[in-house]
Each structure stands twice: as C-alpha cells, then as structure tokens.
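Something for you to look into today, if you have time. Could you write out one complete protein record for me, on any chain you like? The space below this message is yours for that.
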Amino acid sequence: MQREELVRRFVEKIWQWYAKNKRTLPWRDLQIADDTQRAYMILVSEVMLQQTQVSRVQLLFPRFLPNRIFRGKVIDLLRDHPRGLTLAGIGRES
C-alpha cells in the first residue's frame, strides 16, 4: 500500500471518529454568514478556552455571543474595551 493511501485512510478514520464522538460546542456551528464575524467569534472562543475549562466556556460563550456583534477591526475592539470586560466571568477578573 502506498504512503498516500495510508495517509488518506488514516485521515478518513480520524474524521469518522470525530463525526461520531465530537462534543457539541456552541462555537463549532455558528450560524453567522459573515466570515469576518465568524472568525472573530472563533478567536473569542479560543481565547476563552485558554483562560478556563471547556465546561465553563460552554456556559459563558452563548451569553457572550449576542452582546458582541463586531463589525470593525479587531484592533478597534481591543482599544475600545477594557481588558476586564473581555475576561470577566471566565475566572480571570484581575
């Protein structure tokens, strides 16, 4: 069997396992048409996940989502919002 075929089968098995075993997480299936907005919300989920456990982010992300429709540049968002606001409620209030 060729290396390429082995790699293809391995990747296929991993995707099959993922389809069967993945956790339902609110940031995985965002119903947002705007790619920039989707990328921003995924970035937010990644930052939140760096700060605390997945179970806590699962509770907080849906509450965060409706209040954070972002239409500008990320740099503007960071400039206009204090650090405490972005991390509040995920175990990093200080």
